[in-house]
Amino acid sequence: xxxxxxxxxxxxxxxxxxxxxxMNKNSDNSIKISELQARIDSLSTLxxxxxxxKSGQIATFLTFQNEDAEQAMNFYLELFDHSxxxxxxxxxxxxxxxxxxxxxxxxILNGKLFMCSDSPAIHDWGFTPAVSNFVECKDENELEFxxxxxxxxxxxxxxxxxxGFSKKFGFVEDQFGVSWQLNLQ
Length: 185
Known about the structure:
Layout: H1 9-20, H2 23-49, E1 60-64, H3 69-79, E2 84-90, E3 102-109, E4 112-118, E5 133-136, H4 140-151, E6 155-161, E7 168-173, E8 179-184
Parallel strand pairs: 1-4, 5-8
Antiparallel strand pairs: 2-3, 3-4, 6-7, 7-8
């Protein structure tokens, strides 16, 4: 084995920096290192808590045709706990969508992955109650809050009641045309 004969300038700089530091600077460095480690740990937690968008992942995708995808997304983010916006891409001047509207957005509602966009093409189809979001509410307060908020400027398809399959259930179409089944076991 050959002895180490070259010391890189970077390694030399690091060695000099640490050897010239006094005890206060070492203490400051320890605090900074601890703060950085805490940030790294929180990012690692965020990474493991966030659903991934890799192959095989299934997510709900909402296609809006009235340039209100961002308004809808923000409305949902305010309603549900453990929710956040992950990524937003906007249409630019070059189009084909209206500048500033959502080309594609990824967000989490209560831990579940959703995506949405403002479609520049107007389709013959829209949202249908045949496909809806089913929410199992933790208590009656949450059920009534979500029912009230989601039905505001929307449409109640089944009012809150006991329909025999749960204690309390309601079915609404929100102001954006998206359907929600709200259940309390």
